[in-house]
Design goal:
The protein is mostly helical. Helix content is about 80%, strand content about 0%. It has one domain. The termini are far apart.
C-alpha cells in the first residue's frame, strides 16, 4: 500500500508540472510526514549528499562538458559530410545520412541532446530543401539522436555502472550491437520513406577521391571514441579519467586541429556544462533521498512480491519490466529514471537469473524512447525547435518510428546475446 501511495504521489506531482527535483523531495518528505514515519528529516539531507559523493560521478559533468565542446565546434559538420559522401546515394539518402551521423556523433558525445542539436542544425535545413516535410525531419532526428545513449560513451551507462557495480569496461561495449540494430532499422524506414514519397532518390555516388578527402577530414573526430573506449578497455584509464581525456581531446581537436572554436567560447561552454551538470547532480541527490526511503520501507520487497505473483516466468517479468520503464520514462528523463528504477528492478532481475549487463542495456534502450515522447521528450523538443514544426505535425510521423524502435527494444530484451556477445568476444581475445 505504501509503495502504491508513494508512486502515485510522485507521478501526480510530475503530471502537475512540478519540477523533477521538487517532485522527488516533496514526495519523500510528504511520505514521511503524512504516513507518520519515525525517520528524522535530517536523514533526507544526508541521503541527498551521499547520493552525489561517489567519485565515479565526476565523469558526468566532464562528459557533459566534452559534449558541449564537440557540439559547438565543427565535429558534427565533418561527420555529416563523411556520412553523406558514403551513403548519400541511397534512396532516402538524407534520412540515412541523418541516422548514420547521429550514430557516429553519439559515439563521440554520449549525450542524446547534444547529438540531436549538433546534427539537427546541419541536416534539417538540407532535408527541408530536398522536399522532406518538417514533421518527418524532426521526428527522425528526435529518434536517431537517442542512439547516443547506447553508444560506448553513454552517460546513462556510466550511472548504471555506478548503481549496479557492473564494469563500465564491459558495459561500454554491450550497447554497440543494439545501437547498430536500432540504426539499421531506422535506415530501412528512411529508404522506404524516400521511395514512397519520392522526395529523395539519392545523389550520385561519390568518387574514391571524395571518400578519401571526407575520411581524412573527419578522421580526428572519429578517433575520439576509439581512444576513449580503447583506453578504458585496456585499463589505461578509469571511466572518470576517460571523461577528462574526452575533454582534453575535444579541446585539442576543436581549438588546434579544426580551429573552429576559439578560447573566448570556452567560458560560455563551461557555464552551459556547469548549469546542466548542476541540474543533473541535484536530481541525482534527490533520487538518492527517495531511494533511501524506498530501501528502508522495503518498497522493493513489496514490488518483488507483487511481480512474483503476476510473473512466474522470466519472459513475463521482462514484459512488465519494459512496460514499467516506458511508463516511468514518459514522465522522467533517463538519468533520474535510471536512478529511481534500478534499485527496484535489479534484485528482481537477479531473482530471474538475468545478466546485469544485459539488464543495463534493456533499461537504457527503454528509457531512450522516453526522450522523444511527450511530456518530457528532450530530443523531441530540440528537434521541433530546429525544424520549426509543431508537436502535432511531428507526432503523425513519430508513431511508425516508435513502433520500429520498440520492436528493436523487444529484440534486445529477448535476445541477450545482442548485448553480451561483443564484450565477451573482446574479453576472449
Amino acid at each position: 500500500m505504501f509503495a502504491a501511495w508513494l508512486f502515485l504521489a510522485f507521478f501526480g506531482l510530475a503530471l502537475a508540472g512540478v519540477p523533477l527535483l521538487y517532485a522527488l523531495l516533496g514526495t519523500t518528505v510528504g511520505a514521511i510526514v503524512v504516513a507518520g514515519l519515525s525517520h528524522p528529516l535530517e536523514t533526507i539531507f544526508l541521503s541527498f549528499i551521499g547520493g552525489v559523493e561517489p567519485f565515479i560521478l565526476i565523469a558526468v559533468p566532464l562528459f557533459i562538458f566534452a559534449g558541449e565542446i564537440l557540439s559547438s565546434g565543427g565535429v558534427g559538420k565533418r561527420i555529416v559530410e563523411f556520412a553523406r559522401v558514403l551513403f548519400g546515394w541511397l534512396p532516402g539518402g538524407l534520412g540515412v545520412v541523418t541516422v548514420i551521423s547521429c550514430t557516429m556523433f553519439g559515439g563521440v558525445s554520449g549525450s542524446a541532446i547534444a547529438d540531436t542539436a549538433a546534427i539537427g542544425s546541419l541536416v534539417i535545413p538540407a532535408m527541408v530543401a530536398r522536399g522532406y516535410s518538417r514533421g518527418f525531419a524532426a521526428a527522425l532526428l528526435a529518434v536517431a539522436g537517442t542512439i547516443a545513449l547506447l553508444m560506448p560513451l553513454s552517460i546513462p551507462f556510466l550511472v548504471y555502472a555506478f548503481i549496479s557495480g557492473v564494469s563500465m569496461r564491459t558495459l561500454s561495449m554491450a550497447g554497440l550491437l543494439p545501437a547498430l540494430a536500432t540504426a539499421a532499422a531506422l535506415i530501412v524506414m528512411c529508404m522506404w520513406h524516400g521511395k514512397k514519397s519520392g522526395v529523395d532518390n539519392g545523389e550520385d555516388r561519390s568518387t574514391p577521391a571524395q571518400i578519401r578527402a571526407a575520411a581524412k577530414d573527419a578522421g580526428p573526430a572519429l578517433l575520439m571514441p576509439l581512444i576513449i573506449v580503447g583506453g578504458i578497455w585496456s585499463g589505461k584509464f578509469t571511466p572518470s579519467e576517460s571523461a577528462a581525456v574526452a575533454v582534453f581531446y575535444g579541446l585539442a581537436v576543436s581549438l588546434f586541429y579544426y580551429k573552429d572554436l576559439s578560447w573566448r567560447h570556452i567560458p560560455q561552454l563551461m557555464l552551459n556544462a556547469f548549469s546542466t551538470s548542476a541540474t543533473v547532480m541535484l536530481v541525482i541527490g534527490a533520487t538518492g533521498a527517495m531511494a533511501w526511503l524506498i530501501t528502508v520501507e522495503q518498497v522493493a520487497v513489496q514490488m518483488a512480491e507483487w511481480i512474483q505473483l503476476v510473473a512466474t516466468e522470466q519472459w513475463m517479468f521482462l514484459i512488465l519490466f519494459n512496460i514499467c520503464l516506458l511508463l516511468l520514462g514518459i514522465f522522467i528523463e533517463p538519468l533520474p529514471a535510471m536512478l529511481l528504477s534500478a534499485p527496484l528492478f535489479l534484485p528482481l532481475a537477479k531473482h530471474f537469473g538475468m545478466d546485469m549487463v544485459h539488464v543495463g542495456v534493456v533499461m537504457t534502450a527503454n528509457l531512450a524512447i522516453a526522450l522523444y515522447t511527450p511530456p518530457v521528450g528532450g530530443t523531441l523538443f530540440v528537434a521541433a525547435k530546429l525544424a520549426h514544426a509543431g508537436i502535432g505535425e511531428i507526432t503523425r510521423h513519430l508513431w511508425p518510428l516508435i513502433a520500429v524502435t520498440f520492436s528493436v527494444v523487444l529484440l534486445i530484451t529477448y535476445l541477450p546475446w545482442l548485448s553480451l556477445w561483443f564484450p565477451r568476444w573482446l574479453q576472449s581475445l
